[in-house]
Structures are given as structure tokens and as C-alpha cells.
Amino acid sequence: MPTVRPRHAITETDAVTAALEAAARKWPEDRDRPARLLAHLVEVGFHAIEVELDEKALARRRALEQLAGSLTGVYEPGYLDALRAEWPD
């Protein structure tokens, strides 16, 4: 089918063969359409990665929220000015 979009070639390694076989069980209507099975696998893989990244970002935000304010009062007022005054010009 004509397209102006980039195309990508993929070699059917053992891992790709296994993925296609699993995809054919999941989407039997596309069993004889390996390109369509690969598209399904890409969509599912993309979703899984997005979920994982979102979960990691949420965990980082929660960690920051737990730590927020935990060092309040550790450094007295003027601490940075005093420290910088010790530096040579």
C-alpha cells in the first residue's frame, strides 16, 4: 500500500517468531498478516512502556513529596552567605 510514511524492515529472529506466534493466538483474525500482528505488538508494547514510565514518574513525585520540608531548619539563616564569604575571590 502506498504511503509517504517511513517503513521499517525487521528480521524474523527467534524472538520475533515467538512474538508473532503469541500475537497470532491473541489476534487470530490477523494470523496470516504478520505486519498487522507486528503493529498490534508495537501498540501493546508502547502502552506497557507508557504505563511503566508513568508509574516511575509517580513514584518519584511521591518520594519528593515525602521529603519536601524534611530539611527545614537544618541550615540556619545566612548559612550560604557565610559559606560563600569563605571562598576566595
Order of helices and strands: HHH
What is the SS-derived class? mainly alpha
Indicate the radius of gyration in whole angstroms: 27 Å
Tell me, briefly, the overall form: elongated
The low-confidence runs, each spanning 5 or more residues with pLDDT under 50, are: none
Distance between the termini: 69 Å
Number of extended strands: 0
Largest sheet: none
General description of the model:
With 89 residues, the chain is mainly alpha-helical. It has a domain of 56 residues. 61% of the residues lie in helices and 0% in strands. The longest helix has 34 residues. The protein is elongated. The mean pLDDT is 95.
Keywords:
single chain; 89 residues; mainly alpha
Question: Layout of helices and strands, plus pairs?
Answer:
Elements: H1 14-26, H2 34-67, H3 79-85
Task: Give a summary of the structure in a few sentences.
The protein has 89 residues and is mostly helical. It contains 3 helices and no strands.
